[in-house]
Design goal:
Blueprint (H helix, E strand, L loop, with lengths): L21 H11 L5 E4 L2 H4 L3 H13 L3 E4 L2 E3 L4 H34 L12 E4 L2 E4 L1 H15 L20
Parallel strand pairs: 1-2
Antiparallel strand pairs: 2-3, 4-5
Helix pairs in contact: 3-4
């Protein structure tokens, strides 16, 4: 396509807030420093899911004469209709993020009420059987040994446990 490009990879970080998004912050700095002249995003929700911050980004692009490509087309940031469309898309992105967050939390609460584990990796010493934590007899022996060592003042010996203490699952 004849363009030089730089990838700003967020590594799957949420588009809800810019505070912890180092790549996004670098993108903004590069725009402000006139180091780039265009931005391509797959979808508006990949860039931002907060309508205020999304509109601030659009304003930054307009002020710095940045070309904005969304999907397979260049957006005309001088057009009132395009700006309205982007505002609407930003609002929908924020709305859908809010709905998804609410649904996710509701689902976790329902599972917790059913006594199921909902926090990701199964803690050492337990097995996840049908969504419920069940003590693992072999790992319990290891945990009891660690507790015994700690009780006898040997906690320094377990600061760097061997790799066998960690459960790693691959799908």
């Amino acid at each position: 396509n004849g363009y030089d490009y730089k990838i700003y990879d967020e590594g799957g970080r949420s588009g809800g807030s810019i505070k912890k998004r180092k790549s996004y912050q670098q993108l903004v700095k590069d725009i402000e420093n006139n180091e780039i002249d265009g931005v391509w995003i797959f979808s508006t929700n990949r860039l931002q899911r907060n309508s205020y911050e999304f509109l601030s980004f659009i304003k930054l692009c307009v002020e710095n004469k940045i070309k904005l490509f969304v999907g397979d087309r260049e957006e005309d940031l001088s057009s009132s209709e395009t700006l309205l469309k982007l505002q609407i898309m930003g609002s929908f992105d924020e709305y859908f993020r809010s709905v998804n967050t609410h649904q996710s939390l509701s689902n976790k609460m329902r599972k917790l009420k059913e006594g199921k584990w909902v926090n990701g990796t199964t803690p050492f010493g337990y097995d996840n059987i049908d969504g419920k934590l069940t003590p693992n007899k072999e790992e319990k022996k290891v945990l009891n040994k660690i507790i015994d060592w700690y009780g006898r003042g040997y906690s320094h010996q377990i600061q760097n446990p061997p790799h066998t203490f960690y459960k790693v699952f691959y799908q």
